TrEMBL record:
Stored CDD domains: ttLC_FACS_AlkK_like
Gene3D superfamilies recorded: 3.30.300.30, N-terminal domain of ligase-like
BP term (GO), one: fatty acid metabolic process
Keywords of this entry: Fatty acid metabolism, Ligase, Lipid metabolism
Domain named AMP-binding enzyme C-terminal: residues: 455-537
Single Gene Ontology MF annotation: ligase activity
Record SUPFAM superfamilies: Acetyl-CoA synthetase-like
Descriptive protein name: AMP-dependent synthetase/ligase
Pfam family, one: AMP-binding_C
Family per similarity comment: Belongs to the ATP-dependent AMP-binding enzyme family.
PANTHER family: ACYL-ACTIVATING ENZYME, BUTANOATE--COA LIGASE AAE1-RELATED
Species for this entry: Cupriavidus basilensis OR16
């Protein structure tokens, strides 16, 4: 027995870090703060706590016990926020279902998570009906709606959400239990095989909220969050718990606006009518918001917005800054909580020009508190902080997932050597700022050099008339791989491949990129849209597969260049 451990007084309360503790200060100090759904339904934070109690009582009436899993399939709503708290606070596991997956993938995740109850919006009832016969553990379904009647269904429907809530008691007493208890789970689709389950404990969620809030609330001016902000998530609440931000908003007692299904025009209207000042989203959503605001003539100045999920193109960052937005990036993964770094400008920072400021805002940023953030070589040695030497980002922190559910081999690979491996290649500067160069699987190996697809994309995005771009490596008999660019033009633009190549060659002459980074003319494809994953990221895996498949078809025919046109189609 160690004699240096503190022995608690018998009557002392050992305070567990549970999700319910995030409500304490907010209820005590900000109980009258408002939560609104689409600007149509409004109630106070104090009433929110009552509804959290009602939801727990309702689920208890459906025989949900400690350790059970309750799945949610909904748009971003007040119901989802209630589920974020009630389900883990009663000792059950919240399972946020990715409603953008295929029906068969949703079936796999529901069965793998052993979900017993599903809270499902009426929009997604047909999906459950399609897979009903193969569901292994679902006992009851609660239908969520926005005032419409519950559709007839052969599912085991327990009732409609609000009707069941009205009959449930609000004074549910949430117990204490071990802070390491599983609080939430979701599935990351990755690049191969079945989706992998990622789980977070109560301690993980609380520590992530504290660390992220510390970073966001620390700056005096700019890239910050404070108690007078009005918060609206634009990252789906099924995706990594909406980056953990709803927990922070409730913890700080912020007015919270839940927009429902993401419709750019509605988001812009809610931004104005509810005076939203703080949001987060992926770059593709930001692009749509800017277009909707321009169409409506809406002012976006004063809107602080974090982007993540994929690199923020400098041109898009500039477009947001031009509209008065305070945009900056966050970095993380489904497995990291997710936020482990933020691109907040340093105190007293005075950029030499706009280009430098944009580069800083688009960078991976600096670590948030409690994160051991390293950039290492293949031997796990730290690379030089010179902004040039590349290495993989590896992490430790008190809120990283401990592994994938039921996948010990993948979990060991994730945590090889006692650090979580991100598979992201980056450089670090002397002041601790990090810049991701590429994903390990997305680096293009050509002509004996490694080409960053992210950097080439960024340079192509600077060409007038380019709205969106994705660059992938495609096989080449001579060079191993060569870059291929998929480009979406802006409306009415006529930019061609020659203009893109000319601009890239200018950067070659300036020694910013290698000549091997410039796609050949027949490797620049103009497309109507670029495929996205279920969470809005560019689906490079699908692009690579399309081109590889077509190259296989055309091998030896002398028509390999036709693969570009057919892949674009």
């Amino acid at each position: 027995m160690q004699d240096d451990l503190i022995t608690p007084t018998p009557s002392a309360y050992t305070y567990p870090l549970l999700v319910k503790q995030l409500l304490l200060n907010a209820l005590s100090v900000h109980g009258d703060q408002e939560i609104t759904y689409r600007g149509e339904l409004r109630y106070s934070l104090r009433q929110f706590r009552e509804r959290v109690g009602q939801l727990a009582s309702m689920l208890t009436g459906l025989d949900v016990r400690h350790g059970a899993t309750v799945a949610v399939m909904d748009w971003d709503s007040h119901r989802y926020l209630e589920s974020y708290f009630a389900i883990p606070m009663m000792g059950a596991t919240l399972f946020t279902v990715n409603v953008r997956l295929s029906a068969q993938q949703i079936l796999y995740t529901l069965n793998d998570a052993r979900a017993e109850i599903v809270l499902v919006h009426a929009d997604f009832v047909p999906v459950l009906e399609e897979i009903k016969a193969e569901l292994k553990s679902v006992r009851k379904v609660v239908v969520l709606g926005d005032g419409e009647a519950v559709p007839a269904s052969k599912l085991p429907v327990a009732g409609e959400y609000e009707a069941l809530m009205a009959r449930a008691a609000a004074d549910f007493e949430f117990p204490d239990f071990d802070e390491r208890t599983r609080a939430a789970t979701f599935y990351t689709t990755g690049t191969t095989g079945d989706p992998k389950g990622v789980a977070y404990s109560h301690r993980d969620i609380v520590m992530h909220a504290m660390a992220t809030a510390m970073s966001l609330c620390a700056p005096r001016d700019g890239q910050r969050l404070h108690r007078e902000d009005v918060y609206m998530p634009i990252t789906p609440m099924f995706h990594v718990l909406a980056w953990g931000m709803p927990y922070i908003a409730v913890m700080l007692g912020l007015k919270t606006v839940l927009p429902g299904r993401y419709v750019p025009e509605r988001l812009v209207r809610l931004r104005q009518s509810e005076k939203v000042t703080f949001s987060h989203c992926v770059p593709t959503i930001l692009q749509m918001v800017l277009q909707a605001a321009d169409a409506q003539g809406q002012d976006l100045s004063g809107w602080k917005l974090i982007t993540g999920g994929s690199a923020l193109p400098p041109a898009l960052c500039e477009a947001a800054l031009d509209r008065g937005m305070d945009v900056f990036t966050a970095y993380g993964m489904s497995e990291t909580g997710p936020i482990v770094s933020l691109a907040q400008l340093p105190p007293g920072y005075k950029p030499k020009d706009r280009k430098e400021e944009v580069r800083m805002r688009c960078s991976t940023g600096r670590p948030v508190p409690f994160v051991d953030f390293r950039v290492v070589d293949e031997s796990m040695n730290d690379v030089a902080r010179d902004g040039k030497q590349q290495g993989e980002i590896v992490l430790r922190s008190p809120f990283l997932t401990q592994g994938y559910t039921g996948k010990p081999e993948a979990s060991e690979e994730l945590w090889a050597g006692g650090y979580l491996h991100t598979q992201d290649i980056a450089v670090m500067t002397p002041d601790g700022f990090v810049q991701i160069v590429d994903r390990i699987k997305d680096v293009i190996k050509t002509g004996g050099e490694w080409v960053s697809s992210i950097e080439v994309e960024s340079l192509i995005m600077d060409v007038a008339g380019v709205q969106e771009c994705a660059v992938v490596g495609v096989r080449d008999e001579k060079w191993g791989e060569r870059p291929m660019a998929f480009v979406v033009r802006t409306a009415d633009a006529s930019v061609g491949g020659e203009a893109i190549r000319d601009r890239l060659m200018q950067h070659v002459e300036l020694k910013r990129i290698s000549k091997y980074a410039v796609p050949e003319l027949d490797r620049i494809a103009f497309v109507a849209e670029i495929p996205k994953t279920s969470v809005g990221k560019i689906n490079k895996k699908l692009l690579r597969e399309r081109v590889a498949h077509l190259l296989d078809e055309l091998a030896g025919t002398g028509q390999e260049s036709a693969a570009v046109d057919r892949a674009a189609a």
